[in-house]
Amino acid sequence: MSLLINPRDLQFILFELLQVESLCQSDRYAHCDKAMFVAILDTARRIAEAEFEPLAKICDEAEPRLEGGRTILPDDVAKAVNAYVDGGFLNASADLGDGGQQLPVVVSQACMGYFVAANPSLSVYPFVTNGVATVIGNHGGAAQKKLFAEPLRAGRWLGVMAISETQAGSSVGDLRTAAIPTEAEHYLMAGSKMWITGAAQDFTENIVHLVLARIAGTPAGTRGLSLFIVPKYRMPASGQPAVWNDVNVVGLNHKMGFRGISNTVLSLGDRNDCRGYLVGEPNNGLRYMFDLINEARIWVGTGAAALGYSGYLRSLVYAKERAQGRTAANRDPNTPQAPIIEHADVQRLLLTQKAYVEGGLCLALYCAWLVDQSKLAAAAGDADRQADLVLLLEILAPIVKSWPSEFCLEANKLAIQVLGGYGYTRDFPLERLYRDNRLNAIHEGTYGIQAIDLMGRKVSMAEGRGFQLLLSRMRETAGLAKKEPALAWRGSQLERYLERLAAVTRKISGPPGTPASEQTLANAVHYLDAFGHIVVGWLWLRQAMAADMALRGGAQPEDAGFYKGKLFACEFFYRRELPKVNHFLDLVEQAEATCFNMQKDFF
Amino acid sequence: MSLLINPRDLQFILFELLQVESLCQSDRYAHCDKAMFVAILDTARRIAEAEFEPLAKICDEAEPRLEGGRTILPDDVAKAVNAYVDGGFLNASADLGDGGQQLPVVVSQACMGYFVAANPSLSVYPFVTNGVATVIGNHGGAAQKKLFAEPLRAGRWLGVMAISETQAGSSVGDLRTAAIPTEAEHYLMAGSKMWITGAAQDFTENIVHLVLARIAGTPAGTRGLSLFIVPKYRMPASGQPAVWNDVNVVGLNHKMGFRGISNTVLSLGDRNDCRGYLVGEPNNGLRYMFDLINEARIWVGTGAAALGYSGYLRSLVYAKERAQGRTAANRDPNTPQAPIIEHADVQRLLLTQKAYVEGGLCLALYCAWLVDQSKLAAAAGDADRQADLVLLLEILAPIVKSWPSEFCLEANKLAIQVLGGYGYTRDFPLERLYRDNRLNAIHEGTYGIQAIDLMGRKVSMAEGRGFQLLLSRMRETAGLAKKEPALAWRGSQLERYLERLAAVTRKISGPPGTPASEQTLANAVHYLDAFGHIVVGWLWLRQAMAADMALRGGAQPEDAGFYKGKLFACEFFYRRELPKVNHFLDLVEQAEATCFNMQKDFF
Questions:
Q1: What residues in A contact B601, CB-CB < 8 Å?
Q2: How many domains, chain A?
Q3: Quick one: A144 and A197 in the same domain?
Q4: Residues of B with Cβ-Cβ distance to A435 under 8 angstroms
Q5: Would you say residue B181 lies in a domain?
Q6: 3-state helix, strand, coil in chain A (%, to 5)
Q7: Which residue of A has its CA nearest to B446?
Q8: For helices A430-437 and A383-419, angle between their N-to-C axes, nearest 10 degrees
């Protein structure tokens, strides 16, 4: 049994819920079929288990460190990353023409789930590299694509995103790193970057940093940011030695989680010799970077779910094996102790985790599937459908980033609880998963910032069309469920939550074009809490409908338990989780102002 | 400003809420006065800041390790513990006749708050030592008191509790360590003990282990457990060298938090030469140990609140200093960035923490104050009043252990969130506080076990008298609040929650003498969640009433902000936290059975 993600569940989400094999009817995915997807998923799991997972504890304990200008990493890091590249996962969803496998994004995200669950730190290298190559591919010139995107796609070099600075973390518009034009085609870069992940390693011959910086004289704020390619080494014509590009790792940040990958403070241009190559047009940097940022939000969601998932499976195995105490029905101390899974409260800890992690993973894969749908609409020249899909993705982006980060961290907390004292020892990976997952609600945009993005921007975007599209998809599911005797009550319940969400959303939305008030935004996180729970509840109902159909269709006996588990988890979510939404929406509806009115001198 | 606990808040809880100075009217505390309490609190804070806090990061990073039979600890651990002992804190609340200071327990617990906030690992040594001395003092023979309790009380030796075994963690009745009677006064101990905190150190000349073990032939389960004193060294008549008592540290557990104190696997009697001295009567061991266990529950609650409190203060300081972004009212990127405390969502993160940590600390100190009240009742020979106070403490014990462990851990999570990326680096102590606090919902009885204790035993104990006593204290506060215009609404709100809690409690209680059903107990944690929130809500109302009175009485200007903060935190708790209780009580009332009915094969 895999301790990363349940392969049966992945197949259920991909083939029974999202019917990913139907993508193969399109030209884009005509070279694929279901058997191929299954084989690729299995390969991903095997590489994750064989190459990534054995390094997880080692990477956690032996953080990267700098020694005499070199970065010391645990042995086998390069080998593991190479196994990933050699397995074809780096460019799994890139176009065939770009050397990729042109797989559906939903399949490559599912594979990514295994890798993050096995070793989150190592999974960052290929994820970011793929993102950097994509941005250069989308917006760079032909020479840049050849010089930089190709070796990235081949996995010979790795890519790094360099956005934040010490004074500008959440507030991207306050970046100061300067790009000074020269007579030549390059700019001279000057400034320092903070929180730069993966920038200290020397197992690849080069690193390509994608740097947001400000060309002198451009406007303040985000509208004055441009995007630059800044390699660690400049690669002259073949035969010549590489030239160091004055990119300086001046420090490492030491984190509670994701400890296996360097998180660096970079200084660019200490010797006034750091060359940057402008990508696309000046002042469009943040827009280009968003190609990567939206993808990163799905990736964070997948990863948070995967970390939660692995904790769930490990606590499940433990609960079946560990004997401790007796059930309430048997207090005779002369009888053997019972496996703790027989205790009702341990079942609660496990079922809560199951509902969170399978729900979170389903949400992340649904969003990845929307990316595929939007690619197909674009390929088919159906601009309206593509625009709709992009709006759906826009409204879901803050949710897929945030919901798993919050609730699958909670799952990790509960996994520790199942193991009791063993849960908090470092002999088991539960406490590490919990530490790793704690970063996800912060990096790539905090929970609070995602909430403001959702409430202040996304629900009202395009006159609220994204919101209406999502609502109608969810209403459709509720309507279908109401026709199924076993699920009718849940369909009605979902419908009630949807109408409440719609009503509250109408109430908080001012006239078109006016931003939400500061007092309204003060409860943005609770709007995100409620919205996320409703979306996950919707997907749980879809999972329950698929399971119910399979059971009615006469599932194989060995599968029946799996499907019944889905029904139980959906039941759990509707009876025990969704009711929490009411309180959150009450706060939003009232624009509850206690926090807003609190004065800083009263703390 | 202290970064451990706000001294102003401690004074508020002790003197304005609990009126601790009135204890000095009793004979027991006649030697004390308020000025003395204030001076002692200040001394505790200074020693905690000067001796404990500077070692916190060092202790976290340099875990105890065994080397050639010795335990390697960071330098200055012994110095810090000695400073605590020399300051008189080890026996702060012990009787004058036992060499203590005979201070109110509530004052010594408040002092303990500073020490745990400064360095939770170091605080364990004196806490457990005091507990071991108390148990020996209460139940040991005269020779045992002289031989063992005295050097413990003097801080020359340290004490250790040894209950758990590998196969018996939560299930104490399954302990197997054997005590074999001999012709002499001692037993020969044989067995191994797990999770034994503080047993590996050699900076004191001896360690006294209080060991639960089973004399051959006694009944299975908890009724067959006896208590033994097992010293690390046997101390013969003066002039003779100490003899090692065959207590073997065979391993160390490596934990995610509380890393500065050893957590050991002990083996007793590998050479068949481990002598244990029976305390009191055979088969009463667990009952004796409970003197220490109830005290430990208050200590865990105090500590969890203190760790949360320190995180809150540190995130508050950061939020006032760190400039990032601009408020919704000002989006001009040319203006300077605002301190993040001006963002409404950061105010929410801070006010949530304030409500949790000040509420949790107030709960813990209230319980400590009840211990003092019960001592005074005993001294006055008022057996009825003493019995009532003990019942109140019994029903509050699972709550004071659990509520701060859950919600002040959440506070630590939010403190990290305030700091963003800095929050998860090890440059700031926030991530360490979060790791430390994660242990509190597990050690000394898990959250689930406390919940079963509350629902399955404590509410129905003595025909529910403890519950009724607590309810009437809470009703009294609600009634008083209803007469105050500013707080009347909150009084009514509290009353409604109290009536609901009473009704649900009646419903789940079977006929007297019958245990709660397994299905009812399956929701015990939600009963604990709800009950804990109501109790903390009650104490928040008491805090608000005291603050309101002070403001109406014309508080000093520099104090007015403090009192207004109390009113805001109470408002926060009533508007945003207490409503969550309804959902939890719904689950309890319905005996919601999804988790209970889940089958292990469906996971």
A1: 561
A2: 3
A3: no
A4: 256, 431, 435
A5: yes
A6: 60, 10, 30
A7: A420
A8: 140
